[in-house]
Amino acid sequence: MPIKRIxxxxxxRKQNRDSQHFExxxxxxxxxxxxxxxxxxxxxxxxNGPSLTAEDLNRLQDSGIPTFAMNRxxxxxxQTKWRPTYYIxxxxxxxxxxxxxxxxxxxxxxxxxxxxxxYENVDVKGAQYFWMDYNSELKESFELSxxxxxxxxxxxxxxxxxxxxAVYMGYTEIYLLGIDHNYSKSIDMNGNVVEDKSVKDYFxxxxxxxxxxxxxHDMRAPTLAFCDxxxxxxxxxxxxxxxxxxxGKLEVFERVNFDEMIR
Length: 263
Prior knowledge:
The protein is built from 9 helices and 13 strands. By secondary structure, it is α/β, with parallel strands linked by helices. It has a single domain, classed as sialyltransferase cstii, chain A. An 8-stranded parallel sheet has the order 5-4-3-2-1-8-12-13. It has a 3-stranded mixed sheet with strand order 10-9-11. Helix 3 (54-63) links the parallel strand 1 (42-46) and strand 2 (67-70). The termini are far apart.
């Protein structure tokens, strides 16, 4: 057997072993150190919906409240002084052509699935890699991961990944902003394609022009994931998720007024 094939085989076996016991790897141990590190604190999870404004982000920056942000949020940077405390992306379509932009984000931690690092050659300098259980997308029950050092569960939206890390790090009040949960073309809970050309998808028009034809906004998995997060929060009683988004169609979580909350 050629040397290259032998090395590839050994690497694959090690990666398979590490994926099953990720908490024992150097990456997993680094994530374990984050457990409960912000116990009792509040944070925001920032979506990229059309309701997101530079003014609200600047007010968050001034407040000092930690924020999780995702995907192509860096397209908003020219309009605001705000920068996220934590950044997460788990989508190869997003990452494959934006690694320099991601590396330039001055976040305290940039979370990237090690799956993409190992199998898709995604190499983000300084990233904190975690094991993403992509198979959980196929399960009916979301089952929020309470051990991010071992695995984080995927369910159709990176917002749920942000929430899992927030809970793991001990944040007890998690507020959503810019999670409009509404797109110009999407698949509804009954599997029907729904179009509304009056709806904007993101905070900027050129957010996803390069991958627009490759992305289908299927609302079924994210909606069910949000429902399961809400149910788990009530069951455990250790955290709560609130929706501070201005408008939008996400009604799973209790609504709060952003202006009142930020004061």
